[in-house]
């Protein structure tokens, strides 16, 4: 195992979360949910701490983190953008909206802008299909989004 | 205290996204200002289903149905309707076919053909209030089971009802309970599958948000009948509101002795815990779901052993989907004989569909099995958006297929949909019009399957990837005639050899579009054309200089600054800059921009 260089308080947080769940392997997904909730993402070192606490190989933790789309190993931007690519949004033009975000931000899905302001993701169905196509910026929901509206949405959150 | 009037406001995810919480707060404020808060009650309910027209405000007892309400409208609703008794005409639903306002929900085409069984309480009660659920016969079924029926009788009643699993497979629910009841063990489990992963389907979420107690009651009934004292709800972490409402409901039930030890004075103990999914479509498969609850990768395993014999932690486990469970209490209170009169020969009861896509009335609907697609699309759904022509309806999500004009009069049930080359699935129903490319749609679904394949078996992991590559090639205009046979053969092999339901159904979107739209594949391959004008690589946008008057509307709308030209002179599109988003076509009032 590599040496862990996380700040001490982060390690303490992780140990506390693992303890809360009795350091049980069966609780791994719940532990990861909480860890990501606290830290925003689950980089390798975080996974190493959790593996050590649960006494399982890191590969076991890594296998779970990479299996589920909810878990991420890269940090999110200050304003995480999620474009819904559920079927309802897709047939109402979500792809052109996503393309416009990519073009304006100059990043791909799963990436973050160099200044850390925006990250871009696609997700499957928010369940607000009446508002399709739907875009989420943080918690805020934008409905009936067109490519032309993308510039305004970004301007609202810039700076 | 009794109120003389109730103002129901949709508090589902869809309407909350358009400010329904603020509407509720403002309505309450207005009532307080006028000292009417003792006579008129504002209730945040679950989903009304008519999401297209949200946020919805409904006034009882007269069923007045206000649509697309904004926080700014609240004062007028209180002043006019509540105080003076005059309906606010401009907010009433307008029937697009007759162009006149409809004053109450009973006369709306959207609701007339519906029969709400699983959604019986959604939009009627405050989901965070146990008394309201009880007032509508809530927990009467559990009381009946514990007081008057043996576990065997409960199972027989469910078997006689003919209820089949609503999550996709359509397996008879009573039979499943019987299997789980048969095995002896120190501990058994009831699992509610609330990991709704089908993009475009949101019925399970709406039930949990709008009527969480019905799911809890049903799980307890199942526990009693199979001899399980523990229930687990496996729910998507992406459903914060449903999670919150379930937690509240579980706590309320426990506080009233409807969960816990010696429920309602019987010997029966039952408790419920939540387990969170983390975004994996394959976890809808019950063995995968169980592995995920155990904290592992959600990979399916071979059946047998079925979960009824060896499931969660190796114990007998019964897994049912949310909508299936929501039917249980009504079957017990009204009887199997009432339930099995609804529906068709082999599919009893109703089915909830999430109607979406190019349709006027997007929303959540519930109809008796045997209703035709035509009734759903034209009478409930209000027809195709913007007067376009109907092309296809996709049912069953990534596991289903595209049905066409010729299937419109087929009565919808499990077997008919399967025979038509699609499937019921969880009940997503996406309507497509003439502007949708069927090859692109098939590719869209395959993209999803490739991403969601767990990778355990080769046919699914590699096969779907190859299918996707061939489809991608065709949409780029690089297809060759032999590709059609390749898609067919490979699709059949994947169906026959994949390990679980995901792989066995993943080629359906490809195979059904090949069957129903062979001409569209041929056009992409032989003529390098996309007849629907959707495949970007195969089209370019052009301005007709004879029709363009130089109004500059398109120039201003173009997000890529690809349109050049002086005012009052014909414009032109710079093909190198054009991102083919189609905004200009939508904006042009002179139909001067076309797709080549």
Describe this structure in words.
The complex is a heterodimer of chains A (159) and B (596). With 159 residues, chain A is an alpha+beta fold. Chain A has helices spanning 8-20, 28-39, 44-54, 58-67, 87-91, 94-105, 150-157, and strands at residues 79-84, 118-123, 135-137, 140-142. Chain A has seven helices and four strands. A four-stranded mixed β-sheet of chain A has the order 2-1-3-4, covered by helices on one side. The termini of chain A are far apart. The mean pLDDT of chain A is 92. Chain B folds into five domains: 5-109, Glutaredoxin; 130-339, NADH-ubiquinone oxidoreductase 51kDa subunit (Rossmann fold), CATH 3.40.50; 350-433, Roll (Ubiquitin-like (UB roll)), CATH 3.10.20; 438-526, NADH-ubiquinone oxidoreductase 51kDa subunit, iron-sulphur binding domain (de novo design (two linked rop proteins), Up-down Bundle), CATH 1.20.1440.230; 540-595, Alpha-Beta Plaits. Chain B is built from 24 helices and 19 strands. In chain B, the strands form six sheets. A five-stranded mixed β-sheet of chain B has the order 12-11-15-13-14. In chain B, strand 8 (230-236), helix 11 and strand 9 form a beta-alpha-beta unit. The mean pLDDT of chain B is 94. Chains A and B meet through helix 2, helix 4, helix 5 and helix 6 of A and strand 9, strand 11, strand 15 and helix 17 of B.
Percent helix range of chain A: 40-55%
Kindly report the name of the CATH homologous superfamily of the largest domain in chain A. Glutaredoxin
Gyration radius of chain A, rounded: 18 Å
Classify the oligomer: heterodimer
- Supply Rg of chain B: 26 Å
Instruction: Describe the global form of chain B.
Output: globular
> Major sheet of chain B, described briefly?
5 strands, mixed
The structural class of chain A is: alpha+beta
Query: Which percent range describes the beta-strand content of chain B?
Result: 15-25%
CATH architectural name of the largest domain in chain A: 3-Layer(aba) Sandwich
For the terminal residues of chain B, how far apart are their CA atoms? 67 Å
Overall pLDDT of chain B, averaged?
94
Largest interface: A-B, 47 and 60 residues
CATH class of the largest domain in chain B: Alpha Beta
Q: Report the strand count of chain B.
A: 19
Number of helices of chain B: 24
Number of domains of chain B: 5
Write down the overall geometry of chain A.
elongated
The CATH architecture assignment of the largest domain in chain B turns out to be 3-Layer(aba) Sandwich
